[in-house]
């Protein structure tokens, strides 16, 4: 079923972000502005979608003319049985965040992994890295840190979900005295509409703090890490990088980062 611009007669290709909740996402605004800037006949929509309805909605989106999409929680692992991985990151992370239609099949990449891999600075010491969380973005983070040579430790409320991690500690142990070269918040904690934490585990001075939360961008965790002298990678920087890399999957070219920076400027 073709979607067409009635004024021009051009076919409009549909793109989307699937997840639940989805109202906080800036992806539609970001990509639609980028499409317009590059003159692409495309439109991007948010789709509220939980795990139990993901397969049906993927099929419906394809029939409506969907060509590509992003996945956010809690779908990054759920879709794996129905897609074909197109990069090594999907296999390494056991999660996907970007899909593109090839014929009747969805092919998958993980631009979360590639974004973090590109943004993570070199660190002389190769000690321990702590990841908070057990979902798809935690798995992506673990894949990147492992490839960089870190000993990855995961703190999760439900450790049983972390059979992919080499070392798992309880959620309560995250605040125990221990030196971390890298600390990553891969949970929704601190996100708009979600609870926050009074205390956060922090990296050593000159270590690295990564927060995948981007609304708000200057989270309590990022503020505390910056005050300690850590190098911080904030959620908005990660969000823009993975979005620019999604274009590489969809169109064979990276998205316009300058346009994307202007779009998200009010939220930085």
Q: Helix/strand/pairing class, anyone?
A: alpha/beta
Order of helical and strand elements: EHEHEEHEEHEHEEEEHEHH
- Which segments are poorly predicted (pLDDT under 50) over 5 or more consecutive residues? none
CATH superfamily of the largest domain: Leucine Dehydrogenase, chain A, domain 1
Oligomer description: single chain
E-strand count: 12
> Would you give the CATH topology of the largest domain?
Rossmann fold
**Share of helix among residues?**
25-40%
Q: How many domains?
A: 2
Largest sheet: 6 strands, mixed
Q: Tell me the number of helical segments per DSSP (H or I, 4 or more residues long).
A: 8
Strand portion, in percent? 15-25%
Principal-axes geometry comes out as: globular
CATH architecture of the largest domain: 3-Layer(aba) Sandwich
Strand order of the largest sheet: 2-1-3-5-6-4
Tell me the distance between the termini: 39 Å
Radius of gyration: 19 Å
CATH class of the largest domain: Alpha Beta
Mean pLDDT: 91
What can be said about this structure in brief?
The protein has 268 residues and is an alpha/beta fold.
Topology, please?
Blueprint: E1 13-19, H1 27-38, E2 42-48, H2 54-63, E3 66-71, E4 84-85, H3 88-93, E5 98-102, E6 105-109, H4 111-119, E7 128-132, H5 136-147, E8 151-156, E9 167-170, E10 182-185, E11 208-211, H6 220-227, E12 231-233, H7 235-251, H8 257-264
Helix pairs in contact: 1-8, 4-5, 4-7, 7-8
